[in-house]
Amino acid sequence: xxxxxxxxxxxxxxxxxxxxxxxxxxxxxxxxxxxxxxxxxxxxxxxxxxxxxxxxxxxxxxxxxxxxxxxxxxxxxxxxxxxxxxxxxxxxxxxxxxxxxxxxxxxxxxxxxxxxxxxxxxxxxxxxxxxxxxxxxxxxxxxxxxxxxxxxxxxxxxxxxxxxxxxxxxxxxxxxxxxxxxxxxxxxxx
Length: 190
Hints:
Layout: E1 17-19, E2 25-27, H1 38-81, E3 83-86, H2 89-106, E4 111-114, E5 118-121, E6 130-139, E7 142-151, H3 165-186
Antiparallel strand pairs: 1-2, 3-7, 4-5, 5-6, 6-7
Helix pairs in contact: 1-3, 2-3
């Protein structure tokens, strides 16, 4: 007969050891997975989920940065598209009147300046709304007319992405890309 280890009460607690169908003793403690106790398993799962979340958020940040750069390029292209040249005073005057009309139609703010050199809209009270301005710079007998736009809240410090960048970029790109076609469609034929 084998000696039993000493336990208070003389016997080993019943929950601790039982015999299975094969006759071997097994432990009825909480089940261990892959050689690890349940607490260690939970810790390992928590660490794995944190690592996966960190990787996911890093990928999202990279995607946001790529989108920001593409939007910046699109804004630069739209700005180039929003510049037109007129060849004489009559054509420039007609284009300048149409520019004023175009700014009024596309801005939710009132005009604060509209003279022979510049057209400007009022700065909106809230962020996410575009501010438009246009300039007319004489060049020989004609002039160069440019439409500019920016939103309050579009950029942060040092031209970093602002909270309203995506929404503003979409609005500005559409308005600036539509400027030259609008003038061509409405200019009197000469």
